[in-house]
Amino acid sequence: MALPAELAARSALSRICTRCSVSLQSRNGLAIGFHRVSRQQRRPLSGRSSGTKQVGGIPASVAGRSFNTAPGRFSSGVARAESSSTVPRSPFQSKPVLAPDELFHSFTNSPIPDIRRRAAFMRQHARCPHHDHQPGGGMAPAHVDFECPDCGIPVYCSKEHWADDYEAHLQICDTLRQVNEDDHDLRSGRHFPEFEYAGAQLEEALVNMSNWDTFLYTRQFNAINDDRSMRQATRLLTYPVTIGSILHELSPYNIKPGGRLTPEGIKSLSALRYTLHPPLTGAGTDVKKLRVEAPAVRIFVLGARAESSLPRDVWIQLAHLFPRTRIHLIFIGPESMLNRDDEFPLPPRTPTNPFGAIVEDRVWPTLKISTIVDYYHTIHKTGYFYPYDPYFDCFVMFHPGLGHPASSHEWEESLPMLLETKAPIIVTGYTQEDMERDINWVNKTAAGEFDVLLEPGENRFRSLRWDLNDLDPQDVSAGNWGVWAFRGKRYETTRKSADD
C-alpha cells in the first residue's frame, strides 16, 4: 500500500537531524562531517538564499518502492497507476498538536516525545563548552545540563557557565532557536504543501538555476511563501538538485570569471551534457519511429547513507531535469541500507546479482535505482561496472569525510580507482572547514594525479536549514553547504618526429 508523498517526506525529515551523529558515534565517538562553523556561518538565516542544512537517514517504511505508487500530483498512467483511499496509521497522521505560533519549546519539556528523548541523549553525551572544562581550565569535563531559555537547547553544564559564556553563546543562539522551532514544526502535525513536488517539465519551459527561488518557480512547484517552509523543502531537494545544477546545460557554474568551472571542467561536463541533453530524433511508438537509444547515464553515489533512503519522489526530480535521457542511480556504501530495516534481509548474492544489489526498476520511466551494501573499491576490483565512460558516468560523494581522521582510511583504496576512471567526481561538504579538509587530503594522497573541474565554494542549492550535532550543541552544520569536483588527470599523447 502506497504512502502519500507528504507523509513520506515528513517521516524522512523526522530522522534526519540525528542520524549521522548517532550512527557514526559507534566508530570512535566522533560525528563525521560535523565541524565547528565560523562566526559568520553561525549567524541566523536572514532570507531564503542564505543558510543551509544537512540531511540524514530515513526509515525504510517510508522509502524505497513504497513511493513508486504515491498518489497526488505525480500520478500518471505509466508510473503512478494506483492510489489508496486508506493509508496505514502513522504518528504523522494525527491531528495538529502545535499551532504555528507555539513552535518554541525547550527540548526537555517538549510535547513531542522524540525531542524529549533527543534532549536526554544530548545530556548523556554532549560536553559543556565553557573554558573551565577545556584542557588547562582547572575543571573536569562535564556534560551539558542547562537549557538556554532563549533557544531551549541544552548547551552548558550550569546556569553559571551559561551566563559567564553568554557572549560566545549569543553568536549561535538565534540559529539554535531556529533549529528548535523547525524540529517542532516538522512534528507539529500541520499540512506540508511544500512536500508536493512538481511533475514533469514542459519541453518548451526552461529551468532557471540561479537560486532556489528561481528554480522552484520555473519548475512550477507550488508557491512557498515563508522561510520555514522553504527550509523544510530544500532539506531533501538539495540532493538531486545539487547534482542537476552541475550536470545541466543551464548550470549556474560556467567558465566565466567567478563561474568556478575550470577549462578541464568544461571539457568533462560537456561530454556528460551531450549525453544528458540529446537532440530530438523524431522517435515514437510506431515501428517507423523506433530509434536506437543510448545507454543510461550512470550516477554512482559513493559512501551513501541518508541519500539512499530518501523518498523516491525526491529523486524523480533529477529525472525531470533530463527528461530525454535514462538515468541509473547507483548507491554504494556499507551504510547504504541504514534505516531501511523492513527491506532486510538483503537479496542473496547470486551469479546474476553478485553483490546482492537491491534494484528498483522503473521508479520513473527514465529512472532506475540500485543499492549495493559494500565498499566501492571491492566492486571496482571485480570490473563489475567496467568499462567507465566519461560520456555516461559520474561519481557523487555527499559529505564523504575524505579527510576526517575517523573515515579517511576507508577512502584510501577507493581514490586511486576513482581517478583511474577519468569520470567527474562531485564532492560536497557540511561546512567550508569540512570541504577544505577533504581537498587537502586529496592533494596529499593523489598529488599531481587529478584535475579540478569545479573550484571549491558555496553550493547554490545547499539546504537552507541548519542542523544540530547532538554530540556538540555548539556545532551547527548544513547539508551540501559547499561543492567542488575533480577527476583523474588525463595525459595528452604527443608524437615524436622522425628526426628526434
UniProtKB/TrEMBL annotation:
Chain intervals with Polar residues compositional bias: 82-93
InterPro entries listed in its UniProt record: Mss51-like_C (IPR046824), Mss51_Znf (IPR032717)
Spans annotated as Disordered: 39-95
Domain Mitochondrial splicing suppressor 51 zinc-finger: 127-186
Gene source species: Thermothelomyces thermophilus (strain ATCC 42464 / BCRC 31852 / DSM 1799) (Sporotrichum thermophile)
Pfam families membership: MSS51_C, zf-Mss51
Domain Mitochondrial splicing suppressor 51-like C-terminal: 288-469
Protein name in the entry: Uncharacterized protein
GO cellular component term of the entry, any: mitochondrion
Gene Ontology biological process terms in this record: mitochondrial respiratory chain complex IV assembly
